Amino acid sequence: MKKRQLVIVGNGMVGHRYVEELVDKGGLTQYEVTIFCAEPRVAYDRVHLSSYFSHHTAEDLSLVKQGYYEKHGIKVLINEAVKAIDPVTRTVQSNQGRTLTYDALVLATGSYPWVPNITGSGHHDCYVYRTIEDLDAIQRAAKTAKSGAVIGGGLLGLEAAGALKALGLQTHVIEFAPMLMAEQLDRAGGELLRRRIEAMGVTVHTSKNTREILHHKGKQGAHRLEFADGTSLEVDVIVFSTGVRPQDTLARYCGLPVAERGGIAIDDHCLTNAPDVYAIGECAAWQGRFFGLVAPGYKMAQIAVAHLLGEADAAFTGADMSAKLKLLGVSVGSIGDAHGRTAGSHSYVYLDDANGVYKKIVVDADNSRLLGAVLVGDTEDYGNLLQMKLNAMPLPAHPDSLILPAYAGAKPALGVDALPDTAQICSCFDVSKGRIAEAVAKGCHTVAAIKAETKAGTGCGGCVPLLTQVLHAELAKQGVEVNNHLCEHFAHSRQELFHLIRVGGLKTFSEVLQKHGQGYGCEVCKPAIGSILASCWGDFVLQDEHLPLQDTNDIFLGNMQKDGTYSVIPRMPGGEVTPTALAALAKVAADYKLYTKVTGAQRIGLFGARKDDLPTIWARLIDAGFETGHAYAKALRMVKTCVGSTWCRYGVQDSVGLGVELEHRYKGIRSPHKMKFGVSGCTRECAEAQGKDVGIIATDKGWNLYVCGNGGMKPRHADLLAADLDKDTLVRLIDRFLMFYLRTADKLQRTASWLDNMEGGLDYLKSVVVEDKLSLAAELEAQMADIRATYVCEWTATVQDSAKQTRFAHFINSPKTDPLVQFVPERSQHRPATIDERVPQCCGCKEHV
Amino acid sequence: MMNWTTVCKLQDIVPGTGVCALVGDNQVAIFRPNSSEQVYAIDNIDPFFQASVLSRGLIVEHQGKLWVASPLKKQRFGLSDGVCMENIDHSVRSYPARVHQGQVEVAY
Prior knowledge:
The complex is a heterodimer of chains A (849) and B (108).
Chain A (H helix, E strand, L loop, with lengths): L3 E6 L3 H12 L6 E7 L13 H4 L3 H4 L6 H4 L3 E4 L3 E5 L4 E4 L4 E3 L2 E4 L3 E3 L12 E3 L3 H11 L4 E5 L3 H12 L3 E5 L12 H13 L3 E3 L4 E6 L7 E5 L4 E4 L1 E4 L3 E3 L2 H5 L10 E3 L10 E3 L4 E3 L7 H15 L14 E5 L2 E7 L9 E7 L4 E7 L6 E7 L5 H9 L33 E3 L4 E2 H9 L5 H8 L9 H14 L16 H11 L4 H8 L8 H13 L14 H4 L10 E3 L10 H13 L3 E4 L5 E6 L4 H10 L12 E6 L13 H12 L8 E6 L13 E5 L4 E5 L11 E7 L1 H18 L6 H6 L4 H9 L7 H13 L4 H6 L2 H4 L17 E4 L2 E4 L17
Parallel strand pairs in A: 1-2, 1-7, 2-3, 7-19, 9-16, 10-11, 10-16, 11-12, 18-20, 31-32, 32-33
Antiparallel strand pairs in A: 4-5, 5-6, 8-17, 13-14, 14-15, 21-22, 22-25, 23-24, 24-25, 26-27, 28-30, 29-30, 33-34, 34-35, 36-37
Helix pairs in contact in A: 1-9, 11-13, 14-16, 21-24
Chain B lengths: L3 E6 L7 E7 L2 E7 L7 E4 L1 E2 L4 E2 L5 E5 L2 E5 L6 E3 L15 E2 L1 E4 L2 E5 L1
Antiparallel strand pairs in B: 1-12, 2-3, 3-4, 4-10, 5-6, 7-8, 8-9, 11-12
């Protein structure tokens, strides 16, 4: 069957979400899709546009995964705009002379920045703030400018002001209204925001009506803003942020009806009055109004796709205009009726002037429902409050308890049982309580599983507390007990087992199983208990009684690769290696034909080592002065260092020296998961220490200690545990921190998620490790000393003991090697042969290497 | 009549672990779950990767049965029947195995 033609005009955030929705719902089986994208690049994140100036590139902001459109056979016409639509012949015409016929057409042309008609506003030094091109232009202008003004003190205006400030300009914000963000905030909230922004060096001018812009070089700047009150201001760069208007020109030109205040008129299905022509996002007007936020646009995209694919009753029913964002570093949130305009409503206010925090909630006349909220300086309550408002949840007896600080006592739990199944829990991905209940019934019994199944909680994350409550309520209904048992063989958490093993003096898996478990054991409990035993007693992990507990990586002391060979990664503490050692390593790699690569951990990995070659390879490396790098173990992998003050002209401390010392101090200690450290010699942070489990950054006065950072799958910025430490204190704190992690973390839990799940969070961790509230510090330090004393290089012990080497032979009854290990050349080295590339019936001779 | 091949001494296998043996042209994984004379034999080749690694997996117990968890992606294979818990289409061959006069023997 020939596919129907779907043409999408516009590839902004909403236009792209429409495509994702269509792909997810299987719409590509019926439709062939062509997208017109007038901008020179595919959809990107306009909400976080400002981050382009701080640390992001255009690629970082892109919303389209590399190859996404190609993979789905979707045609994207970049730099090509539609200039005419003919609803009668069902054709569109582009500015490149292309004519396409459509069966369905979607207009997602977005909005454009509106610039008021002020004399002089057309000058080339007047910018708007909408696209990456706008930002590039502002950035160029800023290079020769000293000062800048943003006209408009709304949400986007403050974003733009943040950008000017980041570009190093003396920044002014000019607002017509008497306060900032008049749309979203009340007077007191706006006033506090103003104070915090001014404290950062941005000058705020309110009640200022800009009448004219004069372009001649003055003393303070190249342009002069003339205000209606007779005052003036000179600046070099001017950015207009005076609101957006729907981009509906195309529709007007083609005779589609538009709303009085702009926007292509749409019905509840997002259809315009032309057959099969939809309009979504900021270009559309529903019931006469348009929505200048991304979330309503996403909702429209979802409705329009559902309707296109035959869900006749899919309907847009309006949208919530609540918002949470960070402006110039200040968190701001606004929910529902922020101004308390509902008849009979009243409000509760919390103000902390010293710390710049303002919170207000607006509730209805009988104190039963939340109507709105304003949050400035602290938006932690935003997620919960939004859910209460959206789902019309009953308020607790004292509604003010919802916005009091944590030390005022635990916040009242929301009554999730009272919520209907239709209640929206995640507003980013429109996931209802019913959908989450379904996922729980299907077997998703953790927050992580629900996130993966439903996407709920993976947008802004504000709904995670509520999501967790729904999960627990549903599990309780099903009679499922929520537990953190290690596995079916042990009805204890890892933390409990650590304690039981230590206190009971248990030294082997069979003792632990006999006393505290049942059955034989499995792939979860065996390595976990193996690791605890190693953390507690420091016994050599390859003693016969511990052998059955170890994953193959620990048994053969290398990481198993996809073809059954292993990697060989000797330790290079702090990334240091001598030329002589490097030459010895190169010789071993050449002799054994090992693929060689610098790893992500500042050391060199040799890959493709046959199991039977491992002992001789390591014997030679140990002769050359190397030791094992524990790249295979749940243990400290390495300490990444920058060059530091010894060589670097910026460094303030010897980061390499400290890194080497720490790597030797903690090497080999088995932990719940792998650990990575980093040490930077100055605040430039070249060692990326804040992405490590333990990160140390040199200061003029000593060292700052950061903990629980993570790169990888779920990056987490490390938290500052203590600042300006001398080396002895630093090392003592790390001892305590590590031992506390070893004792209390869950199985396979990195420090990042350990802290994220810790009740009391960073403050609690500080109180234990730094302030010693539990009087545990001395014990933790002593335990660490004990465990450090047991260190042996596992490879040295293995190559010295011929009995331990027998297990490295591939066959127990033959000297032959594994015939399935075969390589093919690639980029002057080699890689494992794919299954198709293997030479069949190879008998195990070494010729095929 | 079973055709038993002697592979190794029982004491060559550390209790709780496995070894790989060449039996005819086949790579066979032999497991000794505990210190008794109970041994099992299945194909050594992980069918998901076509790599000879199953003997290097952890011996585990689920559903009252013993399995080996592949060291590559942790799929479980029944020690007595080679059945793959995650995907029965990826099950592997099992072989009769026994200990006779201290020697491990496999039939094929």
